[in-house]
Design goal:
419 residues; alpha/beta; TIM Barrel; six-stranded parallel sheet; 19 helices; 10 strands; 43% helix
Length: 419
């Protein structure tokens, strides 16, 4: 593969060629060089993808992993009003819902029964929240399903929980770990540039506090994912600086399990619908999405092994392409996906394991089920495996949907400020 690339480099721009050669030699690519790669077009564009794919092959091989999980977004009521979020409702709106803990546990049980090894729990920030809510949710889940992995509570939620508990981030994380949290999603990151955050999500967790939660979690033995939302108002420099910041954190802590580029879903996003900012975009183009994943792989080489793409944002066929542009993980089955769906994503709420395996085999790679920490649970090399319990489900409506959830009266959010 490398020899074939060498023969192609003579047709490339000399600067791009030198950067890609350095990347293949496992040299660290600088922010300036990362920005240069975004200018690639023609032959240079395709070479960036080929190099990212080669680095992926050398780093993690030909396995494409996925996790059987369920998303549980237990409330859409939130005190923040981020410009990109179409999921949240403030406490005055009729479509606000709040799942009681017993319903959350029921959903975890349901997922576990069809083979889920992980539940991803994230939600809005409800006003007047009790400081021990998150802990109690985790304790009740673990009491009923002790072997399920709880991947839950973003840095924003950890900060909010600490504030509502009148305690420090470190003490709150300690309590969450004791309650059963296994890992944190590295969401609420968007773009780690404070000036831009103040524009698209004023009042949201600051860059400094996001970094503080992440580093504290890592030092306590709680791994996290890492993410970046792109395709809205950010510049290429913003993206590259974000990736570099994640790389520096990883060098210090080693606590990131993966990196996930998240394309901005514009359709229902308030800041796009109401054109709140001049120059706001409709997410990244096809070329932009491919380059962003490839450059992420190239820049995070030696730091974060796993690059996950988001099938719920990009769709199935684009996801296959991204697996040839540096990605090696298909993400989760999700079962319920509310946040991207509410923003206008059209790619559904559930992807069955057998569908993931089919798509992986179509691009001549090896599908494998993993756990949250990327330990491989089972490889599927021959294609003759039995269907899982989740594969056998023919009526996915049994799991419900976000559209239905906001209409269920018994889950309506009860505003404690109203008498």
């Amino acid at each position: 593969m490398t020899m074939n690339l060498d023969s192609l480099f003579k047709y490339a721009d000399p600067i791009i060629s030198e950067i890609l050669n350095n990347a293949l030699s496992d040299k660290e690519i600088s922010a300036k060089e990362g920005i240069e790669l975004y200018s690639a077009d023609g032959m240079n564009f395709h070479l960036v993808g080929l190099v990212a794919d080669e680095i992926r092959r050398k780093r993690v091989g030909d396995i494409v992993s996925y996790v059987v999980n369920r998303n549980i977004n237990f409330t859409n009521v939130c005190i923040k009003q981020c410009g990109f979020c179409a999921f949240s409702r403030d406490f005055r709106e009729e479509e606000g819902y709040f799942l009681p803990t017993e319903e959350i546990v029921r959903r975890v049980k349901e997922a576990h029964q069809v083979g889920a090894t992980e539940v991803c729990i994230q939600a809005g920030l409800p006003p007047d929240m009790k400081g021990d809510l998150y802990e109690n949710i985790c304790r009740e889940i673990k009491k009923e399903i002790p072997d399920i992995h709880i991947h839950g509570f973003s840095p924003e939620e950890i900060l909010y929980g600490a504030e509502r508990s009148n305690t420090t981030i470190e003490e709150f994380l300690k309590r969450m770990k004791e309650a059963g949290v296994g890992t944190l999603p590295g969401t609420s990151a968007e773009i780690l540039d404070q000036k831009l955050r103040d524009k698209i999500s004023p009042g949201r967790i600051s860059v400094d506090n996001w970094e503080k939660v992440i580093k504290t979690a890592h030092k306590m033995g709680i791994n996290t994912t890492s993410t970046m939302m792109f395709g809205h108002l950010e510049t290429i420099e913003n993206r590259i600086n974000h990736i570099v910041k994640l790389r520096e954190i990883q060098k210090e802590t080693g606590g990131f399990t993966e990196f996930v580029p998240l394309n901005f879903i514009h359709t229902e996003a308030p800041m796009y619908k109401h054109q709140l900012h001049e120059g706001i975009r409709q997410g990244g183009s096809g070329n932009d999405v491919l380059l962003t994943h490839a450059i992420s792989r190239i820049m995070l080489n030696n730091s974060i092994n796993n690059l996950q793409m988001s099938w719920v944002k990009e769709g199935q066929k684009m996801s296959q392409l991204l697996l040839m542009w540096g990605a090696n993980d298909f993400g989760g089955t999700l079962i319920n996906e509310s946040i991207s769906t509410s923003a206008g994503s059209e790619y559904g709420q559930l992807l069955r394991p057998k569908e993931i395996r089919r798509m992986v085999r179509e691009i001549k790679r090896i599908p494998a089920e993993r756990d949250t920490h990327y330990n491989i649970l089972k490889k599927f090399e021959d294609g003759n495996e039995e269907e899982s319990e989740l594969d056998k489900i023919t009526n996915i409506s049994q799991f419900g949907s976000y559209v239905e959830l906001v209409k269920i009266n018994k889950f309506n959010y009860k505003n404690p400020r109203r008498k």
